[in-house]
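Running this now, will post back.
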Amino acid sequence: MAEVKICGIRSRADLAVAAEAGARYAGFVFFPPSPRALTPQTAAALAREAPEGLCKVGLFVNPADEDLDAVLELAALDMIQIHKVEDPARLAALRRRAGLPLIAAAPLGAEEDFLLALRLSRAADMILFDARPAPDAALPGGNGLAFDWSLLAGRRWPGPWMLAGGLTPENVAEAVARTGAARVDVSSGVESAPGVKDAAKIRAFARAAGA
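Update: finished.
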């Protein structure tokens, strides 16, 4: 049984379905190139609607201080998730600035990638193992790509971590069984089109992750 994060929440309906399905985390994207991106104002309104116990996570891609501030001044988040920052000192600075727990995204495609993940874990409260995007990819995640789950099978990791990358209602149970993941993150795998969440897929994903 794994806790579920539904990332790329964009509407009250998305939020309600995620909460009703039993998701533990709701992800709000603050990266304009993404079809799932929100304004700080929209995120603030959604955060006010979130039921108690649903952890509100803000996703940022190598943010400038002022961009982080612009969101946090309006939206009441519980955690931040940072992509494309490989310097632990910068991660630690972002964590201090936000005053919130931090999830650091660590792309995983080969054994040597764990070295970066270990470095990031010094400044993060949780590691998000995600598939390494293609060199020309516009987005750091949410691309529907999976990685070799055997990289995580049987591995002891020093702190909390979450599994992402190409997860769907059809494969999440296998992913949890093979990796031992206690937390799973999905975005494109529960959509009918880029940025458009599918309620039936969200419910099916949560059921499969919790089976």
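The CA atoms of residues 109 and 132 lie 6 Å apart. More later if anyone needs it.
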